Amino acid sequence: MSVQFHDLAGQVRGLLECDAVVQVVGCPERNLRHPLLDRLAVSDYRVAGSDGAGDGAALLEHERVRALCDLALQTGRWQSLSLLVDVYMWQSIAVLPLDRPAGVLGLLVCASAREAAFASGEQHLLQQYAPVIAQRLEQDIEHECPSPLALNESSAEESERAQHEFISLVGHEVRAPLAAIKGYAALLQAYGSASVAEGARIPADAATMSPALERAYLAHIIEQTRYLEVLMSDLLDVSRIHTGRLALRPTSVNVALLCQRVTQLMQDRVEQQCPGRYMLRCALPPRVPLLRADPDRLQQVLTNLLDNAVKYSPGGGVIDVTVSVPLKRIVRITVSDGGLGIPAAQQSQLFKPFSRLHLTSAPDIQGAGLGLYVCRKLIEAMHGAIGISSREGAGTSVSVTLPIP
Questions:
Q1: Does the pLDDT value for residue 206 go beyond 80?
Q2: Residue 396: helix, strand or coil by DSSP?
Q3: Is residue 35 within 8 Å of 41, Cβ to Cβ?
Q4: Distances (CA, A) of 348 to 216, 227, 372
Q5: Residue 141's CB: how many other CB atoms inside 10 A?
Q6: Does the pLDDT at position 1 exceed 50?
Q7: What is the DSSP string of 343-384?
Q8: Could you tell me the end-to-end alpha-carbon distance of the chain, in angstroms, rounded to an integer?
Q9: Is 268 buried (19+), middle (13-18) or exposed (0-12) by CB count in 10 A?
Q10: Helix axes 155-191, 211-242, angle to 10 degrees
C-alpha cells in the first residue's frame, strides 16, 4: 500500500497502555464503506499500521478476531473479547470502527496480555479519541490519493481549497488535544478519588483509580491545555502579521539575564514532566552588550526554540543555549540539541507557515507548523535574522542574530 499513514497505532497504544494496536483500512460491507477506499483499491481488511508485539496481519487472519471486526462494523460500536489464549496468548481483544460521515474507513484492533484489560474506562477514552483518528486517516488517504478532478482546479478554486485546508488543519490541531482533555477528565470524573468520596456510582468491572494514575491523567490534561494555549497564541500572531498589526514594544534588553531566566524556566518544566531526562545549559561570554528589542517577544522566540529542541529530542540529552558576540555590532543566540535532526530536503520549508516536519522516527509529534514562522517574523521585525543548521540523526542548531544599537 503506497499511502503514508500517520502513526496512529502508536498513539492509541500509548493512550490505552496495551500491548499491541493494529490500524486496519477496509470495509467488506459495500453499503457501509467510505468512497475513499475505492481510490486505495481496498475491499477486505488490510493492515495500514501496527505498534507493539505480534504480527498484525496474522492477527486479522484469526477467525474470532475477524468475526469481532465484522460485528463492530455492523453495530458501529466498540466490541471486545477476553481469554483468547489461542491468539498470540492475548487475554483481551477490542475492536473499534473508524467511521466518518461518508462511511467506514477501517478499524482499530487493540490487544493486551492482561485479562479484562479493556473495561468501560478504556472504552470511553478511546471512543472520545476515535473521531480524531478517523479524521486523520481520511486526510491521509485524500492527501496521497487525490481525486482526478482536483488536478484540473482553477486558481480561484485552488485558493478556496487552500482556505479550507487551513480551516481543516486548525480544526484538527484543536480537536486532538480537546479529545484527550475530555477523555482524561471523564475518567477522573468517573473513577477519581473525588467521585469515590462523593459516592458516585462506579461500574462493577472498574477498579478505583490510584493516586499515581490520577496525577498522570491530570498531567496529561495540563500539557494538552498548554499546547492549546500556544496554538491559539500562534494563530493570533499569524493574523496580526498578515494584517500588519504586529506591534512591538522595544526597550533596552539584557540578553544574558533573559537567556538564563528562560533556560531555567524550561529546565524546571521538563524536569517536572520527565525527571532526569534533559539538561538545559546556558553559556555566556564575559560581557554581552544591551540590545534594543521587545523583551516579551524575544522570550517568546527563545521559549519556542527550546520547546522544539525538547520535542525533537525524545530520548533526552543536553540542550545548549549559547550567547556570543561574533562581530562588534551583532549578538547571536544559538539553541542546540543532539536530537533527531531534520532531513536536508525539509529544512528550506521550516520557516514557512504550516510547514510540518515528517520524520519517520517520530511521526506522532504534535504541531501546526506555525512556531518557527512566527519566530522568523518577530526576529525580522526586530531587524534581526534567524537560521538553522541540522543533520538528520545528529541534532539541530537554530541561531538568532540581533543588531547592537
A1: no
A2: strand
A3: no
A4: 38, 25, 12
A5: 21
A6: no
A7: -HHHHTTTTSTT-----TT-TT----S-HHHHHHHHHHHTT-
A8: 57
A9: exposed
A10: 160
How far is residue 296 from each of residues 6, 336, 377, 383, measured CA to CA in Å?
Answer: 36, 22, 14, 16
Residue type, 387: G
Highest mean pLDDT among 65-69, 204-208, 244-248: 65-69
Q: What is the pLDDT of residues 139-157, one digit of tens each?
A: 777 776 766 554 444 555 5
Dist CA 341 CA 351 (whole Å)? 16
Amino acid letter at 243? T
Task: Write out pLDDT tens, residues 166-178.
Answer: 665 666 567 667 7
3 state SS of 237: helix
Residue 271 identity? E
φ, ψ for residue 253 (rounded to 5)? -120, 130
Distance of CA 328 to CAs 290, 325, 332, Å? 12, 7, 11
**Minimum mean pLDDT range among 205-214, 248-257, 267-276:** 205-214
